[in-house]
Amino acid sequence: MKWTNVFKLPEPFAHLVSEDLYYEERERQLVTYCSKNGLDRSQVIHFSASDLIKPPRMRVLIRRHFKEIVSDVSMHVYRVLGTAIHTALRLASQRMERRGVTGYIPEERLFTHFNVKGGVVVISGEPDLVTPDGWLHDYKVVAVGALEKGVKVEWEQATNIYVWLRALRNLPTEGIQITFILRDWQQSKVVQEGYPKAGAQTMECPTWTLDQQSAFVFERVKLHLEADGMHDDELIECTGYGTEMNEMWEKPEGWAVIRENGARAAKVFRRQDFPEGTTAETVKAAADADMEIRNGAKSKKDKPYVVEHRPGERTRCQSFCDAKGFCSQYKEFAAAAFGKVEKPAALSAMGEPQTKENHDVR
């Protein structure tokens, strides 16, 4: 990957972003596992839990075009925050152990392997923390708004892969909890209705049966192996709004009924929520009708409701996918939505800065 530093941030910051220490440690542990189990690392196909839950199109395109991808270090502030907090929490668990508080297991990578069509596939996963009583915790550094949305489907998938890996080693898991660390929490706002009362909270995550976990893992391995043999343009497309996974984190075009100058919509009308073939004009008319009803019922002291147009977007594609510059699916969307194909985010409106290359192949 080619890294830029357009805003001339301190070199240690740029180094932390561009040098993927997590990948290096994972690879070291994988080599050790292969050696212990008599496997040839060069012949092994390895999928981490995070690999398996990614869309196959995304993973394959990033791997194939890794050296061509350009990103600016300034775009990865939240990645740095996440890394720093995870590291601090791991060190805290280690300090507790030195002081005699034992049984907490931070960031232990688990492995398993099996034969597939004459080859060997290795699966690995690294829970953030397992407590002495068997609860598996996954730390998520997120905005306050994420707490209201609850556990994301990909978090549920990844943590259940961890539980599956533990079960293969006869390690019992009592349950799964997501620990939300709210990066933008403000104590002054706790008096507001619905605002989180603390800057860190836990939420239980569904735990699947062992059969469900196994079926999910093997189905994802099958999809990713098939994708490895496909041409870029033949890759299965990422799913969008209305599907279980919504891999593109798609928000379709809609009309929000919202109080004037308000921050949160009372209701959002989207075409996908109406019968197939419904026109945009019909959806807009439904939002207008809802607005009129709400304004008729509001008290005199309340601000009126208005209808706000919300264009469709694919949040993951546009802001969080390094493969978008090589993705025919995204290019087609961008051409329709913007009338052009966007430049990579790091280069957009920034010219052509000097680059620093990272030659890791993931």
Task: Provide structural commentary.
By secondary structure, the chain is α+β, with helices and mostly antiparallel strands. It folds into two domains: 2-237 and 347-357, Lambda Exonuclease, Chain A; 253-311. It is built from eleven helices and 16 strands. It has helices at 11-18, 21-36, 49-53, 56-64, 77-98, 144-149, 153-168, 210-228, 280-297, 315-319, 328-338; strands spanning 2-4, 44-48, 70-72, 105-106, 110-116, 119-125, 129-130, 135-142, 175-182, 200-205, 250-251, 254-259, 267-270, 305-310, 313-314, 355-357. A hairpin with a 7-residue loop joins strand 12 (254-259) and strand 13 (267-270). The model is unreliable at 344-362 (pLDDT under 50).
Secondary-structure blueprint of this entry?
Layout: E1 2-4, H1 11-18, H2 21-36, E2 44-48, H3 49-53, H4 56-64, E3 70-72, H5 77-98, E4 105-106, E5 110-116, E6 119-125, E7 129-130, E8 135-142, H6 144-149, H7 153-168, E9 175-182, E10 200-205, H8 210-228, E11 250-251, E12 254-259, E13 267-270, H9 280-297, E14 305-310, E15 313-314, H10 315-319, H11 328-338, E16 355-357
Identify the CATH class of the largest domain.
Alpha Beta
Largest sheet: 5 strands, mixed
Q: Show unreliable segments.
A: 344-362
Second CATH tier, the architecture of the largest domain? Alpha-Beta Complex
